[in-house]
Design brief:
CATH superfamily of one domain in chain A: Winged helix-like DNA-binding domain superfamily/Winged helix DNA-binding domain
CATH class of one domain in chain A: Mainly Alpha
Strand order of the largest sheet of chain A: 1-2
Order of helices and strands of chain A: HHHHEEHHEEEHH
Shape of chain A: globular
CATH architecture of one domain in chain A: Orthogonal Bundle
Number of strands of chain A: 5
Structural class of chain A: alpha+beta
Oligomer: homodimer
Helix content of chain A: 40-55%
CATH topology of one domain in chain A: Arc Repressor Mutant, subunit A
Strand content of chain A: 15-25%
Largest sheet of chain A: 2 strands, antiparallel
C-alpha cells in the first residue's frame, strides 16, 4: 500500500484499522457476517474489481478475520468463513449502521438489525457491561491505559495546556482532566 | 482519491465509510473527541504529513464532522471542533477500542474508556435500547430495510440458495433465513 502503516501505533483503534481499515475491507466483513462465502457472492454484492477483491480477501485471511476453506477439489474452489475475531467485530458494524442510518439515510434505512426470531427492529446503544449505564459523554471519557506510550498521552497534555492558558494559568479542574490523570 | 467512491451505495456502513473510511480520518476524529483542536496538536499526536493532515481535516469539515473556527485573526489560525455528528460517532470508536484491546493488545490496553468522575474502567457492549438485550448473534441478525435496493438484498438470496442446494432442495428454515424474509 502507498499509505503509512498503523502497525507501529499503540492505539487499539489504529491497530484495528490496520486489519480492517483498507477501503472495501469492512464491506467484505459485512457480507461475510451476513452469510456470503464465495468469491462471486462477494463480487456481485460489492461490484468490486476481481483483483481488488482477491487482495482484500487475502489480507483479511492474513489478519485472521477470514478462514479460507476449499469446497471443491476439481476445479479447486475456496470459500471464506468469518473467524471468531470477525464475529467479535459485529458490534463495530452495528454502531456504524446505526450512525449511518441516523445521519446519512434521508430515504429511510436500507439495512437494519433485527431480532432473528420476531424480525423486530433493534436500536443499538453502547452500555457498560457491569452497570448497564449508557456510555455517554461527558460521563465517560477516553483515558490512556497502563501500557500507553508518550504519544498516546500527548493529546491529553496538549488539551490540558490549552485549558490552562485559556483560564490564565488557573489549574485545570474539569472532570475530563481529572479522569485522564486518574 | 484513486479508489472507487462508496457514495452511490445505499448501505449505511458504506455511507459512513464514505465520510470516515479514508486512512487517518478515524484517528483524527479520535483525537478531536479527546480534545485536540489545533493543527499542530493533531500533527504531533499522529505524526502525519502536513499536506495529508490538511486534506483529511478539509474532508472531515466537508462531511460535517468537524467545524473550522478561527481563533486568531493575525496571523489567521483555525481550530477544528467536533460536530454533533462526530460526537455521535463515539460509540463506533468505543467498539473499535474494545475489539482492538481484546485482539491486538498483547502488552495490555493503552487506551481505555473510563468513568469521567471515578476513573473506573468501563467495558462497552452493545444492547438493544428498548429491551436492554445484548445484540448477540444468532439472536440478532442484519436484514434489508424498507428502502433497500436489489444489491443489498443479493447476499441474502445467495446464502439462501446455497443453503437450499446444500440441503438438496429442502426449504431453508434456519432462524437466520426466517429473519431475513420477515
Amino acid at each position: 500500500m502507498q499509505h503509512k502503516s498503523f502497525a507501529d501505533m499503540q492505539c487499539p483503534i489504529a491497530r484495528s484499522l490496520e486489519r480492517v481499515g483498507e477501503w472495501w475491507s469492512m464491506l467484505i466483513l459485512r457480507d461475510a457476517l451476513r452469510g456470503a462465502r464465495r468469491f462471486d457472492e462477494f463480487q456481485k454484492s460489492l461490484a468490486i474489481a476481481p483483483n481488488m477483491l482477491t487482495r482484500r480477501l487475502n489480507s483479511l485471511v492474513e489478519s485472521g478475520l477470514l478462514e479460507r476453506r476449499r469446497y471443491s477439489a476439481r476445479p479447486p474452489r475456496y470459500e471464506y468463513l468469518p473467524t471468531e475475531s470477525a464475529r467479535d467485530f459485529r458490534p463495530v458494524l452495528w454502531m456504524l449502521i446505526s450512525w449511518g442510518n441516523k445521519h446519512f439515510a434521508p430515504e429511510g434505512p436500507s439495512l437494519l438489525i433485527v431480532d432473528a426470531k420476531t424480525g423486530a427492529r433493534a436500536d443499538p446503544i453502547v452500555v457498560d457491561r457491569a452497570t448497564g449505564r449508557p456510555l455517554m459523554s461527558p460521563d465517560f471519557a477516553l483515558a490512556a491505559g497502563p501500557a500507553a506510550n508518550g504519544r498516546l498521552r500527548r493529546v491529553d497534555r496538549a488539551a490540558d495546556e490549552r485549558t490552562a492558558v485559556a483560564s490564565e494559568g488557573a489549574p485545570a479542574k474539569s472532570p475530563k482532566a481529572k479522569s485522564r490523570s486518574s
